[in-house]
């Protein structure tokens, strides 16, 4: 039974797991997207999203908290300067996991994890929003047109 087991240990000791997640977070912040396994991507998402939330408020305390997790001065600077400016109005969900299929060598499930605001392909689709529709049988414009048609038919 897995009652109360909230952390995926990824078959690693604690120090190895923390170092791996720290390194992957630095790579994600630097390159904006990385390829990894699905399990590591899910663990990385839980690790990096609170750090991005802390970076939205640029205080010395938050910088020190984030630096304690990342251990990379360049990544902290990039996070607080560029990434925080882009995700400032987003209330969460800063990363996206896209499954890629299986790796050739060991058939592991692979995924790409990326920062949401840095993908221009999805931004273009979101910019061209379609008009919202109501879920009713007749809309106001079509019912008004129908009323006008019946009045014109009655007059004839």
Describe what this molecule looks like in 3D:
With 156 residues, the protein is of the alpha+beta class. The chain has a domain at 14-121: 50s Ribosomal Protein L17, Chain: A (Alpha-Beta Complex), CATH 3.90.1030.10. It has helices spanning 14-31, 38-55, 60-70, 73-86, 120-127, 140-155; strands at 33-37, 95-102, 109-115. The chain has a three-stranded antiparallel sheet with strand order 1-3-2. The longest helix has 18 residues, at 14-31. The mean pLDDT is 88.
Which regions contain 5 or more consecutive residues with pLDDT less than 50?
Answer: none
State the fourth-level CATH superfamily of one domain.
Ribosomal protein L17
How many helical elements? Answer: 6
Task: Give the rounded overall mean pLDDT.
Answer: 88
Helicity level: 40-55%
What structural class results from the helix and strand content? alpha+beta
CATH architectural label of one domain: Alpha-Beta Complex
Subunit structure: Part of the 50S ribosomal subunit. Contacts protein L32.
Protein name: Large ribosomal subunit protein bL17
GO molecular function: structural constituent of ribosome
Keywords: Ribonucleoprotein, Ribosomal protein
């Amino acid at each position: 039974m897995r009652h109360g087991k909230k952390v995926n240990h990824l078959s690693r000791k604690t120090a190895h797991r923390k170092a791996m997640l720290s390194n992957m977070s630095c790579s994600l912040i630097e390159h904006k997207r990385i390829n990894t396994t699905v399990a590591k991507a899910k663990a990385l998402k839980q690790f990096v999203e609170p750090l991005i939330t802390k970076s939205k408020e640029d205080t010395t305390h938050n910088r020190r908290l984030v630096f304690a997790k990342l251990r990379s001065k360049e990544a902290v600077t990039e996070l607080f300067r560029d990434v925080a400016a882009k995700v400032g109005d987003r209330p969460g969900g800063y990363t996206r996991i896209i499954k890629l299929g299986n790796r050739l060598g060991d058939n592991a499930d692979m995924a790409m994890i990326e920062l949401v605001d840095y993908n221009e392909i999805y931004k273009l689709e979101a910019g061209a929003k379609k008009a919202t529709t109501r879920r009713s049988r007749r809309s106001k414009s079509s019912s008004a047109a129908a009323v006008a048609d019946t009045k014109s038919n009655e007059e004839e």
